[in-house]
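2024-03-11 09:14:02 DEBUG pipeline.ingest accepted 1 chain
2024-03-11 09:14:02 DEBUG pipeline.ingest length=298
2024-03-11 09:14:03 DEBUG pipeline.predict start
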Amino acid sequence: MQLLFTILLDGLVYASYLFIVAAGLTIIFGVMKILNVAHGGFYAWGAYTAAYFIGAASEMGLPDWFAFLIIAGSALAVGIVLGLLIERIVLRRLYDHEEILIVLATFGVFLILEDLILLIFGVNPYFAYQPMVALGSVEMGGIFRDVYSLTLFGVALLVAAGSWWMLTRTRWGKLITAVIHDREMALIVGINVRRLFVVTFCAGAVLGALGGAYIAPTVSVAPGFAVDVIVLSFAVVVIGGMGSIPGALIGALLVGLLRALAVHKLPELELFVIFLVMSAVLIVRPEGLFAPAKARKI
């Protein structure tokens, strides 16, 4: 029973931060139809920025709770700055080109962002443990868990609720829905599609950076650590359906729970199990479990 509870808890924690990253990825694809490989760069930059400034704040004697403001600020700064730069310098020139060219361009951007991390932050790992220490630990099911990791549940729920509210209850959501279903018609009726693309890309970038910034206190932030996360985020999005927030949530839960089960019972099959499920989903439903319905054009 204790092992089952541990697997469930580990799976939910892992699923929470995977969902945060995958939500940004699926929002960008749903609106812009761009498979953004550079999303891993947003994750890595969010983690490094948060870890660096949390360490600097600790050396300055600032209270540990200040680290949470740093995490939020790092996600916003990285997402907005990098999102604006990449959209204006790279993507804006490629909207009318083949999708494969955009994928290759974002992959090149990802490599550039990884190299810039080495130039700016160096090759040594960063340890931003202060927020975990500040929140302490709690006993659950006979084992002690750090409270900080459990707060990922709340962050993931806020992201899910905020995304749902924005897409279904706001004017921006209605504009986004119009662009998703028929970009040409949206242009004809006067919707500023380019501005909508900028806002969407920056919002997705902020979520990618938030995933990295929030997970930074729980891991060793080192070069190359974003590769595994972006691969698993793609798996989440593919399983749930490209462009679907509910799909990303269900996909993250499946991946998180399966990974936790494999880690505890069959660690040698950790990645195999995830991609086996992804392959099975693609065979049965090539568009994913919860792919958004496409408008029928007459």
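2024-03-11 09:14:41 DEBUG pipeline.report Residues 15 and 253 are 5 Å apart (CA to CA).
2024-03-11 09:14:41 DEBUG pipeline.predict end
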